[in-house]
UniProtKB/TrEMBL annotation, chain A:
Domain of life: Bacteria
Residue ranges annotated for the ABC transmembrane type-1 domain, each copy included: 92-310
Transmembrane segments: 33-62, 92-117, 129-149, 176-198, 234-257, 292-309
Cell location: Cell membrane
One Pfam family of this chain: BPD_transp_1
Family matches, as InterPro entries: MetI-like (IPR000515), MetI-like_sf (IPR035906), UgpAE/MalFG_permease (IPR050809)
GO cellular component terms listed in the entry, alphabetical order: plasma membrane
Membership in a protein family: Belongs to the binding-protein-dependent transport system permease family.
An example Gene Ontology biological process: transmembrane transport
Species in which this protein is naturally found: Nonomuraea rhodomycinica
Protein's name in the database: Sugar ABC transporter permease
TrEMBL record, chain B:
Keyword ATP-binding: no
Family as reported in the entry's similarity comment: Belongs to the binding-protein-dependent transport system permease family.
Cellular compartment(s): Cell membrane
Gene3D superfamilies hit by this protein: MetI-like
Predominant cellular place of this UniProt entry's protein: membrane
Name listed for the protein in its UniProt record: Carbohydrate ABC transporter permease
Superkingdom of the source species: Bacteria
Length: 322, 283
């Protein structure tokens, strides 16, 4: 396919012929193509995504159980009642804890990988293997991890076999389940962030490290004075990507309980809490669409705040690497 | 001291690699064990290889129908996404004037809005749409069409944003040369620029296919009918029935059915998927 294109390039006319072409006419023809090509996507995006999202903001000021039921405007009362609701507060705090704790773990893992992976043997294979869980459906990840931590699961069996029976835990009990979920999220996401920051590390010219080595910098100093300053922008991008992803954590929690049960309040994130309100819970309760919409707005605000905060990591001037 | 620390990190990373490989092997082995053996012999090879786990998962637990739903929804959605986003991205990258900057930003904003801000309006539009179609237009409606609609619009921001980058990176004189040879702007797009952008287009299509294959929450919210649900949701239903069926071997066979196409895609496209996910974002 590329052959066609390069053939055309080979037949590209000389500068002399180029001068004769009526550029204005050509530009005009191209301009006329702009809207017909852009509009289908733009209209679909506007009508079915942007406007509905704005409608979601409006809905968060209403009380409604869906089409065919009565809608009443309630002002800020969805937000007020949320602030007073124990379930909402728990899911709010858990979502923040998950985003921050898992975020910190991802940062440490990515940082450690940046120190050793640049020069490690088998680096490409390592990256491919650690990236793998990120590709896999979070439902499958959640099922596998929850089974691993099952009371009769592999973790407890192995602990028993090693003679560490006192370390055996009811991992999926309400007190511990959220920690297990966070471990599952770390496992499924870490590889992506390692590969992401390593793509920035690969962009650093090797000569920088050579100079640092000649100057007598240790591997840690090379990390501190070469790698870290030159990958700050990517770390900022990674942080905001994680903020966007972490706040939305949903599937893995649901995978721990299946569709029949309801996750215990100790394990709910905001997205789970919203899902239960959209569907009216699994017990056939009424949907609370206004409250669900308000949760969506709260999540958008948290995401925006976290994105702004992670942008602060970014350096102000743009770096051009040789 | 530092040496030991670095060696420790290296060892931990290799342990992580081994753990990932081990998890894949463990799931594969569990999928061919009897449910008893999964608990009694969690780490060893199966005494009898229960290939029928796949048969029971496929037919008795409805994963077969769900797999077909997943395949059709993914393929149709990706085709529509590409049909909409390739021309739009080309227009913004190559044909637009002053408006192309703001339009790019407009699409980019969609990437950072959490899905949950959109969830309630989506459910309402879904309900309204099917009622409208049933009452006024076709008389019947399939919620899978609604799912396709939202799969497409929710994937547009990412797809268009990344494709704009690809089209911008192509050399401009190729277009000029084609025009001088008498190709109309649309023909230049179709016969020159799209083939040139093919690596980028393939990457975006594969990435969309991956994320839609793994998608769960939209189907959970929009499709109440079990026979119309996708693999991930069917797997959740399967898991919920576990207390009655105790067919753990079948559940792991189901996990394999969901995961294997992704691992195959990963092995097939490998670096391109990784680069597309990481480098496209960094720009």
């Amino acid at each position: 396919m590329t052959v066609t294109a390069s053939d055309t390039a080979l037949r590209a006319p000389s500068a002399g012929r180029r001068a004769k072409v009526p550029r204005g006419a050509l530009q005009g023809e191209r301009r006329r193509l702009y809207l017909p090509m852009l509009l289908p996507a733009l209209i679909a995006y506007l009508v079915f995504f942007v406007l509905p999202s704005l409608f979601g903001v409006v809905l968060s000021f209403a009380e409604w159980s869906g089409l065919g039921t009565e809608l009443s405007w309630v002002g800020f009362s969805n937000y007020v009642s949320m602030a007073g609701s124990e379930l909402f507060r728990a899911s709010f705090v858990q979502t923040l804890i998950l985003t921050l704790v898992v975020g910190l773990a991802l940062f440490l893992i990515a940082g450690a990988s940046m120190i050793v992976l640049r020069t490690a043997r088998g680096s490409a294979f390592i990256r491919a293997a650690v990236f793998l869980p990120f590709m896999i459906s979070p439902i499958a990840v959640g099922l596998a991890v929850s089974f691993l931590f099952n009371p009769d699961g592999l973790i407890n069996t192995v602990l028993g076999a090693l003679g560490l029976s006192e370390l055996r835990q009811p991992w999926l009990a309400p007190e511990l389940i959220f920690n297990v979920i966070m471990a599952g999220v770390v496992w499924s996401a870490a590889g992506f962030y390692v590969v992401l920051v390593m793509s920035a590390v690969d962009g650093i010219p090797p000569s920088y490290y050579e100079v640092a080595r000649i100057e007598g910098a240790s591997e840690l100093q090379q990390f501190r004075y070469v790698t870290l300053p030159l990958t700050r922008d990517m770390l900022a991008i990674a942080a905001s990507l994680w903020a966007i992803a972490g706040i939305k954590t949903f599937e893995i929690v649901i995978a721990f309980v299946g569709t029949a049960g309801t996750p215990p309040p100790e394990a709910r994130t905001l997205a789970v809490e919203q899902y239960l309100r959209v569907t009216g819970g699994r017990e056939g309760g009424l949907a609370q669409l206004g409250e669900a919409a308000a949760i969506g707005i709260v999540m958008t605000v948290i995401t925006a705040v976290l994105i702004v905060l992670s942008r602060r990591i970014q350096r102000r001037e743009r770096l051009e690497l040789a | 001291m530092i040496r030991a620390g670095l060696a420790l990190i290296r060892a931990l990373i290799w342990a992580w690699v081994l753990f990932n490989v081990g998890m894949v092997v463990w799931v594969l082995l569990n999928s061919v064990k009897s449910s008893r053996e999964i608990f009694d012999n969690p780490a060893g090879l199966p005494a009898t290889w229960m290939w029928e786990n796949f048969a029971t998962a496929w037919s008795d637990s409805g994963l077969g129908a769900a797999a077909i739903n997943s395949v059709v929804l993914t393929l149709v959605s990706v085709a529509l996404i590409m049909a909409l986003s390739i021309p739009a991205a080309y227009a913004v990258a190559r044909l637009g004037g002053r408006s192309s900057g703001p339009v790019t930003t407009f699409f980019a904003v969609g990437m950072s809005i959490p899905f949950q801000a959109f969830a309630v309006p989506m459910v309402l539009i879904g309900a309204g749409l099917s009622r409208f179609m049933i009452d006024w237009v076709t008389g019947v409606w399939d919620t899978r069409i609604t799912v396709t609609l939202f799969y497409v619009v929710l994937s547009l921001p990412f797809s268009i944003f990344v494709l704009i980058g690809y089209f911008r990176s192509l050399p401009g004189d190729v277009e000029e040369a084609a025009a001088l040879d008498g190709a109309s702007p649309f023909r230049t797009f179709r016969q020159i620029m799209v083939p040139l952008a093919k690596p980028g287009i393939t990457t975006v299509a594969v990435l969309n296919a991956l994320s839609l294959w793994n998608e769960t929450v939209i189907v959970l919210m929009l499709v109440p009918d079990q026979s119309a649900q996708t693999l991930n949701v069917a797997l959740l239903n399967f898991y919920s029935n576990m207390q009655y069926t105790s067919n753990w071997g079948g559940l792991f066979a189901g996990v394999v059915i969901v995961v294997l196409p992704m691992i195959a895609t990963y092995l097939w496209f490998g670096r391109r998927i990784v680069n597309g996910m990481t480098q496209g974002i960094g720009k």
